[in-house]
Amino acid sequence: MTLIRPFVAMLLVLALGACGAGAGTAPQSAASTVPAAAPKQYFVVAANPLAVEAGLAVLRRGGSAVDAAVAVQAMLSLVEPQSSGLGGGAFMTYFDGASGKVMVYDGREVAPAGATETLFYDENGKPLPFGQAVVSGRATGVPGAVKMLGVAHAERGKLPWNSLFDDAQRVAREGFVITPRLGRFLGGSFPQISQPDAKAYFSHPDGTMKKPGDRLVNAPYADFLKRLAVQGPDALYKGETAQRIVAKVGAGPHAGTMTLADLAAYQPVRRQALCRPYRVYQVCVPPPPSSGVGFLELLALLERTDIDKRGPADPQAWYLFGEASRLMYADRDRYVGDPAFAQVPVAGLLDPAYVADRAKLIGATAGPAPVAGTPPGAALAAADATLEPGGTSHFIVGDAQGNVVSMTTTVESIFGTGRMVDGFFLNNQLTDFSFVARDAGGRLAANAVAPGKRPRSSMIPLVLIDAQGKFAGAFGSAGGNSILAFVGKSLVAAVDWKMPVQEALALPNLVARGPSFQGEVGKFAPEIVAGLKERGVELRPGQGEDSGVHGVMIREGGRFDGGYDPRREGRAIAEPAR
């Protein structure tokens, strides 16, 4: 075991769960100044007010950060089903307040034993159109979030597992009001919303689609939560729910191969966090199959620029961010995959000499799309052909003992496959694999499909540690492959430009990957757009689900500085604990 110390990467191992918080008082807003030590505090940041309140209710009862995370996920699965759910997967980065250690719980889905390299090929040997693949039975991986939360709770929970689902059960039975954001997706053209299960769930008895302001009741989900509370994670991985999952995945068109044995065999993975210095902090992220190594490469590239001397009103700052992003994505897309199946050159991608050479490619103006470099220890893999639309959520929980959960959770695309079991959507996570497994020379892509393999993930729930080894912050986002850019922008703004977290998250997004520079053009000042154009950057509107960044920084004197992405409907609330 290695304690976090200044500028030394830390090892992650398991420790016993910590004690919970005391009763709370009136909530503080994201802009509040709640001391971190006297009195102690706990906090929740999530994309929906009902999920935030579910987490705070657990913390007020003396629950731990992991206890509250279970309650938050159960509620998000109900009220934000387009983004995450009990039928999906997650990564949890956990900071232990007593020891200063960090660890990662990997709850990423896995391909069933019957999966092959040609999983998403049609009968003519050609890749399926994404719109067909995403709603197919082949798209669903063995869910990981519930089993991962069960393992984390067994090790770090304080309250009984069966006491963590009451709020979600109640809201499922009584119903909740459809929010504008959920309603926007119900009115969209996503293929999932046209699937029979999704149409039945979101429609009135006369067949018309529900809309914002309507009430949505989910009795099957409440019934499942009741069994999950009593039986533990086995309620999903064995028995009647498991049988229904296998039947739903095995239905056409393009039936999947998942079996009861696949579900019963699923195990989350405890991983050592990947930590590197950035400015005065250590940044700790999940290792592969997460793209955390790519994010750390992005930060290392930015440290070799003067972006910290600039600010959000300077087009050169955005240009540097975009060019560093393109270099990072070129490497990430080529090399990152499940380390149990692919040789991922983690040390090479972060090697100072390699990063310095890559940083030299940032010129005065933008050129053609950069190609992947050859970091030390790399074996050149086939070019990647992975599509990553974003149907994801991130939340942060801190308890009064200083334990913190930074967790990104997903069903992959909007509403997963559109297929439901017991009131929750099944993920389409296997479409995170490269649809084309090999190149013309027969080389295998790092993110090719294989039985038992975890698809590459862009989820990077991170934790910041200060020079004294104390928790200093946490960030994460939704957004598919854009997550790295969304979190990168937010971290640069909060750390380098010293912006309050709420303002940092609200800054316009810029996602530079390959030949394209996509962003929220209308939110950038005309001077920024013009300055980027002078540097060869034609900024265009982005595609897909927008960001869902959540962040926390502990500022001088222990002040809580938390924020939620204004593009969603979240809250960032801290309460002092007695």
Draw up the topology in text:
Blueprint: E1 41-46, H1 49-60, H2 65-79, E2 89-95, E3 102-107, H3 130-133, H4 145-156, H5 166-174, E4 176-177, H6 180-186, H7 196-202, E5 215-216, H8 219-231, H9 234-237, H10 239-249, H11 260-265, E6 269-271, E7 274-278, E8 281-285, H12 292-303, H13 315-335, H14 346-349, H15 352-359, E9 391-398, E10 404-412, E11 420-421, E12 424-425, E13 462-465, E14 471-476, H16 483-496, H17 501-506, E15 510-513, E16 516-519, H18 526-534, E17 550-555, E18 559-564, E19 571-576
Antiparallel strand pairs: 1-9, 1-19, 2-3, 2-10, 3-6, 4-5, 7-8, 8-13, 9-10, 11-12, 13-14, 14-17, 15-16, 17-18
Helix pairs in contact: 1-2, 2-4, 2-5, 5-8, 12-13, 12-15, 13-18
Structural features:
disordered N terminus, seven-stranded antiparallel beta sheet, 18 helices, globular, alpha+beta
